[in-house]
Amino acid sequence: MHPLVVLLLALGVLLAAGVPVAFALILSSLLVIWIADLPFVLAVQQMFTGINAFTLLALPFFFLAGNIMTAGEIAERLVKLAMALVGHLRGGLAHVNVVVGMFISGISGSSTADAAAIGSVFHPAMTKRGYDERFAVCLTACTATMGAVIPPSILMVIYGATAGVSIGALLIGGILPGILMGLSLMVQSHFFAVKHNFPREHPRFLGMRAVWNGLKAAGWPLGVPVIIVVGMVGGVFTPTESASIAAVYSLFVTLFILRTLRLGQLPKLFSETAIQFAQVMFCLGGASIFGWLLAYYQVPDMVTKFITSFTRDWLVIMLLIVLVNVVLGTFMDALPAILIFVPIIHPLAVDVGIHPVHLGVVVVMTQSFGLLTPPLGMVAMTACAVAGVPMMRIQKLLHLMMIPLLIVIVLCALMPWTVLLIPKLLVPKWV
Known about the structure:
Layout: H1 3-16, H2 21-35, H3 41-51, H4 58-71, H5 75-86, H6 92-108, H7 111-128, H8 133-144, H9 154-163, H10 167-173, H11 175-196, H12 208-218, H13 223-233, H14 239-257, H15 266-296, H16 299-308, H17 314-329, H18 334-351, H19 356-370, H20 378-387, H21 391-401, H22 403-414, H23 417-426
Helix pairs in contact: 1-2, 2-15, 3-15, 4-14, 4-15, 5-6, 5-12, 6-7, 6-8, 6-11, 7-8, 7-20, 8-20, 8-21, 9-18, 9-19, 10-19, 10-23, 11-22, 13-14, 15-18, 16-18, 17-18, 17-19, 17-22, 18-19, 19-22
């Protein structure tokens, strides 16, 4: 049996048996190295090469900044600003849910963390105001997917390191698509509000004074995305440096300005961050061996030649990539899906003229969409766990509420300017 067949079969069997993805990647790769009589030192070399990237140092700082802000209970401050902006609309609390989700996405970088933070605040409030419990859970889950798209985004950093694409361009390229995702959810919420007569939180727009007061309450937490984006665009920081500055800023704000974090909480936050980073790095190491073997057996070249023998139309290939990633999202978490399949689809996309930044943002958007789909659906599971609602109760409504997000993904896939507009305006040298 050809070693490549053994590699794919072994990986499939291990994943089906419930072996953690990182271990499945490493074990299947070691099996093929043994069968092919390759030196085992290659495994160590490739693991080291895969994680020996300066850009990956941004990850622990993004994790830490998000953990600090979440523990610092900043969601309530963001609610005040969002309430002043959209609380007067029909179904005001649903719109506030989405707007707060957009704000938190610019702070945490993790969709799962966003689902927990948003759900803990909005599920009790929305059910108390007469919203259907299933709608509240589904909206929270859909809103949280923006956490993987709006900077800072953990998945953007990992994608950039895996594909060799500018992380700064990816982060900035996610701004407009993330906003479009939020607006699509607000449009959908309006139709639900009209149909079910959801209440307004205020009879009219509260005025600019209320917005100013909201900005004063939320201004310190919202400094995180400002530091990251402005610092990178202005050439003051690299993505890694901006992540470290954001972590220090978050610590300073929550400890000394807002005083919502205690020194006694820091050991737990640091340990959680270390565990999160170690898990990602271990998975990256395993994916590096696996990806090297795919390249060794020329899988990316074979896939590129096979698909381009049928079509070289970039639109068709982009839609095919979106479809593949949607399918992957139903049974594989976003991180391993990116690590395993990006080395295969990236050469294909570049070969037919798809911009690497455009591809990266669309892939991350599609993988964030996969965080909603069963049986994994980590974001949907988190939203349900916070609300105490079984997953089976929300499935029908969730699939309906996912449609606007899918429409935005397809539009961004077919219209590169939605991703490339802001990077080309702000940092043209990166694209």
